């Protein structure tokens, strides 16, 4: 009961004070405060079908108590003595509406994957990577040192060094890997050559793990604008088609912007991908202003409540200053409609390019601010080792890898699956490094 009084903000303390005798006279037998018996409702009760709210509705206070009674009650409570009751009638206690039952999610509709299903999916994913990369020159050059039964000595380290350089892992990344292994070999950390190769696998995976960060589409950003950039022929338009296939099958609404207004067939190529995936393509034709196409597309996507907009751009050499500046213009124009757009700038890199990919990333990063990478054509190259060099030098997330020409061959980049696809299968079953 006293707690009920607390709900009323105390008025300024009244001048009048009750003596202990007056209080005792009002409550002759109240030495110990008992919980008050329930009193029938005297106020309108909140209907049961009132809108459910997180908070229980505050009881209505239609008959405010005189301030001096409230003040006395609070004082008396502080003194451990019951307060004097209001003279005419006991204060009616409003009945509380029953709290609505909390809504419990229907767990039967949620799909949990069992550890066995997760393991099966992981194995299937690894098998797909191996199927596509296992026979490539990249896999042959790295896998060669693993496939025989080498001895644990400096020759093995030399062989590893040559294999990594041949695979275009790069001199700096290779030296770092080999010198670390050499130190550990001298410290007798490895029992045999197999131990060293297992450590190499773990080091390769550890090098890529920090950049294996999948693209997160922020559902609160509509449209989430993805701008794809890169040099000529790296696979931008094809990658956009594959992304459209992926996003569509994830149930997202999307739209494409045919911003490659330079190459004659690019618009038609994108439209074909759009038709195949049932996705609208905003285009203005060849030689149109790419920034204007992008602007139109963002506006259309906003008007239609589209979740994801993927904008293509013409291929350009990272050394062509004028064309690189055009990317900055596309970005600025889009930002007139959404200051945060583009929300992802994907640089598409041809995995067969080798070390030149480092220069491309450097230039595109300066021109337009790259936030993610797609490395394509890893299915047919001896030079895919550049992925390690890119990871080491820039630390920019590798979102996807192109491991073939089919729509499903654009894979979320998976450090472990990638490394294991390059190594003999027996090593790939070792537990992944933390
Ligand atoms: N094997 C293989 N081929 C690919 C992959 N990705 C793209 N391609 C092929 O690469 C070629 C060029 O792809 P496009 O998508 O036209 O390249 P682009 O970057 O849009 O070209 P530009 O508009 O000229 O800059 C096509 O023949 C694609 O099929 C991949 O992951 N693996």
TrEMBL record:
One of its GO terms (cellular component) is plasma membrane. GTP binds at residues 230-237, 312-316, 376-379. GO terms for biological process: SRP-dependent cotranslational protein targeting to membrane. InterPro entries: AAA+_ATPase, P-loop_NTPase, Signal_recog_particl_SRP54_hlx, SR_rcpt_FtsY, SRP54_GTPase_dom, SRP54_N_sf. Keywords: Cell membrane, Cytoplasm, GTP-binding, Hydrolase, Membrane, Nucleotide-binding, Receptor. Its main location: membrane. It is an enzyme of class 3 (hydrolase). It catalyses: GTP + H2O = GDP + phosphate + H(+). It is a peripheral membrane protein. Residues 397-410 form the SRP54-type proteins GTP-binding domain. It is found in: Cell membrane; Cytoplasm. GO terms for molecular function: GTP binding; GTPase activity; signal recognition particle binding. Residues 1-63 are annotated as: Disordered. Residues 35-47 have a biased composition (Low complexity). Its EC number is 3.6.5.4. Residues 10-20 have a biased composition (Basic and acidic residues). Belongs to the GTP-binding SRP family. FtsY subfamily. Part of the signal recognition particle protein translocation system, which is composed of SRP and FtsY. SRP is a ribonucleoprotein composed of Ffh and a 4.5S RNA molecule. Involved in targeting and insertion of nascent membrane proteins into the cytoplasmic membrane. Acts as a receptor for the complex formed by the signal recognition particle (SRP) and the ribosome-nascent chain (RNC). Interaction with SRP-RNC leads to the transfer of the RNC complex to the Sec translocase for insertion into the membrane, the hydrolysis of GTP by both Ffh and FtsY, and the dissociation of the SRP-FtsY complex into the individual components. This is Signal recognition particle receptor FtsY. It comes from Cognatilysobacter bugurensis.
């Amino acid at each position: 009961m006293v707690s009920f009084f607390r709900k009323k903000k105390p008025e300024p303390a009244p001048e009048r004070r009750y003596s202990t005798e007056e209080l005792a006279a009002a409550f002759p037998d109240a030495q110990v405060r008992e919980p008050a018996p329930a009193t029938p409702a005297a106020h309108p009760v909140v209907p049961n079908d009132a809108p459910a709210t997180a908070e229980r509705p505050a009881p209505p206070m239609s008959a405010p108590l005189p301030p001096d009674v409230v003040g006395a009650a609070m004082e008396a409570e502080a003194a451990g003595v019951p307060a004097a009751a209001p003279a005419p009638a006991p204060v009616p206690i409003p009945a509380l509406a029953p709290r609505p039952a909390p809504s419990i999610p229907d767990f039967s509709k949620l799909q949990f994957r069992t550890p066995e299903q997760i393991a099966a999916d992981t194995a299937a994913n690894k098998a797909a990577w191996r199927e596509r990369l296992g026979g490539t020159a990249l896999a042959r050059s790295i896998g060669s040192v693993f496939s025989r039964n080498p001895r644990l000595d400096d020759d093995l380290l030399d062989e590893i060094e040559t294999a990594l350089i041949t695979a275009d892992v790069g001199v700096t990344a290779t030296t770092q890997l080999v010198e670390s292994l050499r130190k550990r070999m001298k410290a007798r950390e490895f029992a045999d050559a197999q131990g060293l190769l297992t450590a190499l696998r773990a080091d390769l995976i550890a090098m890529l793990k920090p950049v294996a960060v999948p693209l997160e589409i922020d559902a609160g950003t509509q449209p989430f604008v993805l701008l794809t950039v890169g040099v000529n022929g790296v696979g931008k338009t094809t990658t956009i088609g594959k992304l459209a296939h992926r996003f569509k099958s994830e149930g997202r609404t999307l739209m494409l912007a045919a911003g490659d207004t330079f190459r004659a067939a690019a618009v038609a190529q994108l439209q074909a991908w759009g038709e195949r995936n049932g996705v609208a393509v905003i285009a203005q034709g060849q030689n149109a202003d790419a920034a204007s196409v992008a602007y139109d597309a963002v506006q259309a996507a906003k008007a239609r409540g589209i979740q994801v907009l993927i904008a293509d751009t013409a291929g350009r050499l990272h050394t062509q200053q004028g064309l690189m500046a055009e990317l900055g213009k596309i970005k600025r124009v889009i930002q007139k409609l959404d200051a945060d757009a583009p929300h992802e700038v994907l640089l598409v890199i041809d995995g067969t390019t080798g070390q030149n990919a480092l220069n491309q990333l450097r230039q595109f990063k300066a021109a337009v601010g790259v936030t993610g990478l797609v490395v394509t054509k890893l299915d047919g190259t001896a030079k895919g080792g550049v992925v390690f060099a890119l990871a080491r030098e820039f630390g920019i997330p590798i979102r996807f890898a192109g491991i073939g020409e089919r729509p499903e061959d654009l894979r979320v980049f998976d450090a472990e699956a990638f490394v294991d696809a390059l190594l003999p299968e027996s090593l790939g079953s070792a537990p992944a490094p933390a």
